[in-house]
Amino acid sequence: MSRVITFGTFDIFHVGHLNILKRAAELGEYLIVGVSTDALNFSKKQRYPICPQHSRAEIVDALACVDEVFYEESLELKREYILQCKADILVMGDDWQGKFDEFSDICQVVYLPRTPSISTTELIEIVKES
Ligand code: CTP
């Protein structure tokens, strides 16, 4: 049984998020999702996500294609998360192409194409402008 892991913020959940999770799930039999914490997002982007971590995690966890959710507290812990979850495959969007190849010693690393023309950043801009 192949275990798949992926990571993301999944703020203002949109169809690009759904697509990557569905495609990630198709690569194995069990999908685990690391949802980044509010604090991790603040440290990366100097702003908090619109939706708090418990809501983001609850939405992701409710999806039929997702089996397990945990909080990603630190970018530096990716290797530990992959090992702890006994993941066989790491899936990332191709906006991260090549950036996670260092983990190919412990799992298969797969980059999937992003869904075009949608992102949380873009949605925030559209709402701000309207
Ligand atoms: N993703 C995707 N297609 C999109 C948007 C996101 O496949 N159009 C994927 C990302 O590649 C990532 C996962 O969804 O693997 C979570 O991405 P996240 O950064 O939470 O979403 P974005 O919409 O990209 O958010 P932001 O604009 O804040 O970067």
UniProtKB/TrEMBL annotation:
NCBIfam families: cyt_tran_rel. The keyword GTP-binding does not apply. Keywords: Nucleotidyltransferase, Transferase. One of its GO terms (molecular function) is nucleotidyltransferase activity. Coiled coil: none annotated. Residues 5-125 form the Cytidyltransferase-like domain. Gene3D superfamilies: HUPs. Pfam families: CTP_transf_like. This is Glycerol-3-phosphate cytidylyltransferase. InterPro entries: Archaeal_FAD_synthase, Cyt_trans-like, Rossmann-like_a/b/a_fold. It comes from Thalassotalea euphylliae. PANTHER family: FAD SYNTHASE. It comes from the Bacteria.
